[in-house]
Amino acid sequence: MSENTFWRLIEECRPSMSDPEGVELADALTARLASGPVSDVVAFAEQLSWALYRLDRKQYGSGLSGDAFLYTRAAVVAAGRDEYESVLRDPERFRPYADDLVWAEAVLYVPDAAYEQLTGVEWDRRTRYSYESYSNTAGWTDA
Question: What whole-number distance in Å separates Cα of residue 121 and Cα of residue 124?
Answer without folding.
Answer: 9
